[in-house]
Amino acid sequence: MISRVTHQTVQKSTLANLQMNLDRMSRLQAQMSGGKVITRPSDDPGGTAAVLQLRSDKRAAEQHSRNIDNGLGWLGSIDSALTTSLASLRRARDLTVQGANGANSAQAREAIAIELEGIRDAMLSEANTTHLGRSVFAGTSDAGMAFTGPDGTPPYAWTGATSSSVERRITPDTTVRVDVDGAAAYGQGAESVFALIDSIVTGLRTGGDVAPLLNGLDDRMKAMLGELGSVGTRYGQLETAQQANQKTLMDLKSQISGIEDIDLAEVIVELQSQEVAYQAALGATARVLQPSLLDFLR
Question: Strand, helix or coil at 176?
Answer without folding.
Answer: strand
